[in-house]
Amino acid sequence: MPIPFSIAFVARIAFLLLLVGAANARLTHNFYKTRCPQFGSIVRHRVRLAVSQDPRMGASLLRLHFHDCFVNGCDASVLLDDTPALTGEKTAAPNLNSLRGFEVIDDIKEQLERVCPGVVSCADITAVAARDGVVELNGPSWRVALGRRDSTNASYSDAKSNLPKPISDIDTLISVFSRKGFSRRQMVALSGAHSIGQARCLQFRNRIYNETTTIDPIFANSLQANCPRHGGNDSLAPFDATPNAFDNNYYRNLQGNRGLLHSDQALITTASTSSKVNRYATNSSAFFKDFAHAMVKMSKLSPLTGAKGQIRTNCRRVN
Q1: Is 13's pLDDT higher than 90?
Q2: Is 194 marked active-site?
Q3: N or C: less crowded end of the chain, CB within 10 Å?
């Protein structure tokens, strides 16, 4: 029997609305409430375990999220391995021999696939793992909206050009962050991610040997012992004296010309940013609050939602 016109019409409208809904899907805080209730606890537990075994991992997971979002959005493109058909972002200069934490994301994904197969995206895992890594190092927490999907491609060239460089001056930094919609205040707050973690000698060698007017000489000398003029590119130095504690010592270092990277010390070179540095150096609560707000904003950069992208089964390759 033919379906009555009115029923067929309603069914068609409902279908069209479903398609529109998928196309206009938005991130929500309860995305996995029924889809995968264990999501939050699994990520938190695995991140806690990883950071307990290697405290540096908290900073690594935060940086992984940053390098993902600043290159065409928070879509887990940074996690893709190279293939004959794809040159990914891992081998781009800002990431090569530098980004860490891929195994932690793999571990979390494996755990989630056991209980919620094909449900949780690698992009959402990366976003939440970054937050939980900061919390494990006594930093602020923030609400992470969920529902991102994973990209099916990556961009080596964009990873080279979109990320701020250790040698960037203040004008370049302002330009890079403003292109992503961040104010100078938010840029300075996000730079506080360097409150935790370490950097490679390759990234700060020029500063400690050649930037004699903008660096504390005692600080420079202390770094030269482990970072010679030649060789030792992968030798590490902490951004501040408390690399495993999320605090405001980073900003205090900048006040004393003890910023590890040129791009760190650049924040003190103009009034519009140095005023924020000085505020955060004396007010950790203000830093924590602004950092959390800026992280919420960053985590929403150009996500794939609805029917866009996919939910990868393995975060390192497309399905």
Answers
A1: no
A2: no
A3: N
